[in-house]
Amino acid sequence: MSRVTHLLLSAFAAVGLAGPLLAEDFQGSTHTLAYEDPPISYSAQKPNDRVAKLQAQIASGEVKLKWDDQFGWLPALLDALKVPKSSQMLVFSQTSLQRHAINPRNPRAIYYDEDVYVGYIPNAPMMEVSAVDPKLGGIFYSLDQERQDKPTFTRNQDCIQCHVSGRSLGVPGHFVRSLETDGSGDMISGTDTSEVDQCTPIADRWGGWYVTGQSGAQTHLGNLVGVTAFERHKTEPTLRDNLTELSQFIDPQKYLRPHSDIVALMVLEHQTHMHNYITRLNYETRIMMSMYGHIRYLKSQEDAFLRYLLFTEETPLTAPLVGDPQYVKDFLAEAKRDSKGRSLRDLDMKTRMFRYPCSYLIYSPAFDALPTVMRDHLLQRLYDILTGSDTNPQFAKIAASDRQAILEILRETKPNLPDYWRAKTAERASDPAITAPAKVASSAP
Ligand code: HEC
After folding, report:
1. 97, 110, 181, 288: which one has the fewest Cβ atoms less than 10 Å from its Cβ?
2. Which of 50, 98, 116, 128 is the pocket-test mutation for ligand 1 (most atoms within 8 Å of CB)?
3. Closest C-alpha to ligand 1, atom 18
4. Exposed, middle or buried, 61 (CB in 10 Å: 0-12/13-18/19+)?
5. Based on the number of CB atoms within 10 Å of its own CB, is 132 exposed (0-12), middle (13-18) or buried (19 or more)?
6. Considering only CA atoms, which of 292, 289, 294, 347 is closest in space to residue 317?
7. Cβ pair 403, 382 in contact under 8 A
């Protein structure tokens, strides 16, 4: 986008182009920010993500990836990045730079953890890998599936054709789609695609994906291949739901695991969008600060961010979701627990996703790398919501017991919280977005 368009868009924001419209905008298909212009300069910046770090270790000889005759770099790469194999999910809609290699017999496998994503298609010439840089958002790399001494991740400009758009909140990022596909994995013409996040009803999810695990009588679009299957699904809503393995569709030997795990999918759909929100708020803040020196125009963006962080609009579950226990084990291995043993990673998966509805990405380097003015301001607002002094109806749905639990968990597990978070009877500091935060004496923990 040109500097002029960017100025125009920011000018709209400045005159408050109707608050509600902007709020909508930020949540759904949103305009692309000027990510190649200062102060962001996405492609010109050297990323500092986990793949970039691994690349440096490979170059220096500190890490050596072992080639596998069947899977190429996949197993060694997952091990080096500590990405659990149990996170495997299989997508057969033809959405990738290598779309020709993907079909319902040869789906793409995706593996991930909290800030790295790895895409693998059996027999494809390259792997597609991405990582979250704390300041820049999603960084996209290709890795040739060719045996060599030191494999090289190449930052690939072709990726951002698809990975920066309204689907990723207008910043370089990640997303998940659901669409109806024909027998070859191509979209059935005349049907819709939807971007999936934690707010998407289960009934609309997983078109174009394989799904293993239990979801009870809750209908979804997973495991439906071809027009006939989608037609039958209209009268048999749980057609091909509740599968434990996928050998009726694929040769499981071609993948590391027999699953495309339902719980891994749920977490992915929360996480991809949350990452985009963090990146978006980072970019917006830097742009606002460089233009106006304050962030007062970002109120509706912050609201949307906090609603997503606190799951206020998440879709309810009507039956428990049960996947591969190994995935849950691996996901919980990274849990930070308080003295009562509680963690923001604890899953519910009965009526909602998490036991304590506040995203674990609040611990992420990307959250902490938000410009201080925004990070301080968000933490102040979050504190006010959790202590009940913010009575805005947007957050009214969060139960008092959940607020209390989240507050206690964060106090014990999140380093670098402002002092007033620890104070027993904390006073509300004045708004740090407008003035410097007031000093409140710390007496705890
Ligand atoms: C033609 C559009 C397109 C291009 C080009 C593309 N992707 Fe994607 N990519 C997608 C879509 C769509 C998804 C989401 C999966 C789905 O729902 O099908 C995705 C998903 C991914 C994922 C899984 C995480 C996520 O966002 O869901 C990774 C990793 C990924 N892509 C990496 C890459 C890399 C690396 C490149 C460049 C080498 C690339 N992609 C190029 C469309 C594309």
Report:
1. 97
2. 128
3. 95
4. exposed
5. buried
6. 347
7. no
Nearest of 220, 212, 205 to residue 89 by alpha carbon: 212
Q: Determine if the peptide bond prior to 39 is cis (ω within 30°).
A: yes
pLDDT along the chain (445 residues), means of 10: 36 32 46 93 97 98 97 98 98 87 96 98 96 98 97 95 92 96 90 91 97 97 96 95 96 97 98 97 96 94 96 97 98 97 98 98 98 97 97 96 98 96 60 42 38
Q: Of 95, 68, 89, which is closest to residue 79 (Cα–Cα)?
A: 68
Burial of 253 (0-12, 13-18, 19+ CB in 10 A): exposed
Dig out the tokens for 338 from the structure. 């308080």
The residue contributing the CA closest to ligand 1 atom 2 is 162
Contacts of residue 190, defined as CB under 8 A and 6 or more positions apart, other chains included, come to none
Contact 94 CB / ligand 1 (< 6 Å): no
Ligand 1 atom closest to the CA of 93, numbered from 1: 18
141's CB contacts (< 8 A; 6+ apart) are: 51, 128, 129, 130, 131, 153, 154, 155, 156
* Closest alpha carbon to 207 in 227, 166, 27, 257: 227
83 with 181: CB under 8 angstroms? Answer: no
